[in-house]
Structures are given as structure tokens and as C-alpha cells.
Hints:
By secondary structure, this protein is an alpha/beta fold. The protein has a single domain, classed as YqgF/RNase H-like domain (Nucleotidyltransferase, domain 5, 2-Layer Sandwich), CATH 3.30.420. It has four helices and five strands, in the order E-E-E-H-E-H-E-H-H. It has a five-stranded mixed β-sheet with strand order 3-2-1-4-5, with helices on both faces. Helix 3 (about 100-110) crosses helix 4. It starts with a strand and ends with a helix. One of its GO terms (molecular function) is hydrolase activity. It comes from Evansella tamaricis. Its main location: cytoplasm. Its EC number is 3.1.-.-.
Amino acid sequence: MKVMGLDVGTKTIGVAVSDALGWTAQGVETIKRNPENEEKDFERLKELIKIHDVSSIVVGLPKNMNGTIGPSGELCQIFAEKLADTTKLKVELWDERLSTVAAERMLVSADVSRKKRKKVIDKMAAVIILQGFLDRRQ
């Protein structure tokens, strides 16, 4: 039973998928969002769900440092609801505070150039979100 992890932003969606046993998260891709047609985002996600045989989804929920949910978090909650309706899969929200910061630090420490970091940062954040979720479930 594979789990998909998503780092949902206004411009991109980072995508990661677990292995079949649900132990490790691997980055899949970064989807460039279509602001005029959100349906294209959902269509690509449905394609990836089918390709990777995904049974549930985890969406990163950006919370403020004090634990409250701000405008970005509210947008992620709406996105998660629409995703659940569209895919008919279980969609859970996962606290993703500082996941992008952690991804940035990992890429900097791996000496990845700024240009390359920009291309993979959201995918890495999705990996961190999903791995945190998988570790907590174990």
C-alpha cells in the first residue's frame, strides 16, 4: 500500500511516493501548477496515483510556529478536500513546519547549485513530509 506525499504551494506541487511497505519516501516530480486550470493539477496527480498504485495521500499542512493555521494552511486544507473528492482516496494533513527549510539545508549540504535546488526543493520537501508521516506511523 503506497502513500503519496505532497508539498502544495501556489506555483508548484512537490510529489513523493513511499515504497510498497511504507518505509521509505522517494521524490517523484515537481508539478508546475496551472493557476487558470486547477483541474490539470488534479489530472496529473491522478495519473501519478495510477502509475505508482497509491492507496492514500498525505498533504503537508503549513502551520505557523505557534501552531495556528494561516492563509497558506487554509489553502492546503481546501486543496486536500478537493483532492479527496476527486480521487476518492483517504487524504490526511501532516504538519509540515520547516520542511522546506530542512530540504534547503539538505541540498546546500550536498553542494547542489542554487539553480538545481530551485528545481527540486519542493520534491525534497514532499519527501520530508512523507518520511515524517511514515516514521510516525511505524
